[in-house]
Design brief:
The protein is α/β, with parallel strands linked by helices and 101 residues long. 39% of the residues lie in helices and 37% in strands. The longest helix is centred in the middle third of the chain and has 16 residues, at 55-70. It is globular.
Length: 101
């Protein structure tokens, strides 16, 4: 998984690319650290260029979400397509995240 950050009007965008798996644990720790350091009101995970997500990566997204919510931040998943969109639906992630097309 590759990722890049962009700050915009109180939001932190996390642009992800490639495959998200358990092997990306260190990347998720860095993402969580950046959210904690920047203190955005909203964190947006841009999933448009993600082509695969495994259950471990979903768990890591939930960990990031739980930490953000404790600090009264909103977390959004944006642009999921294909396998990623199916996993978001099966996992009923609409209960935990804002979802945007």
């Amino acid at each position: 998984m590759d990722y890049a950050f962009e700050s915009n009007a109180g939001s932190l965008w996390i642009r992800l690319k490639g495959r998200m798996t358990h092997a990306d644990y260190k990347g998720f720790r860095e993402i969580l650290g950046r959210i904690n350091d920047d203190r955005p009101s909203r964190a947006v995970f841009d999933l448009r260029q993600v082509d695969f997500v495994d259950s471990s990566a979903l768990g890591m997204l939930l960990i990031v979400r739980d930490a953000a919510v404790q600090q009264q931040r909103n977390v959004c998943l944006k642009g999921a397509t294909g396998q990623v969109e199916k996993l978001v639906q099966i996992g009923k992630l609409h209960k935990y995240f804002e979802l945007e097309p």
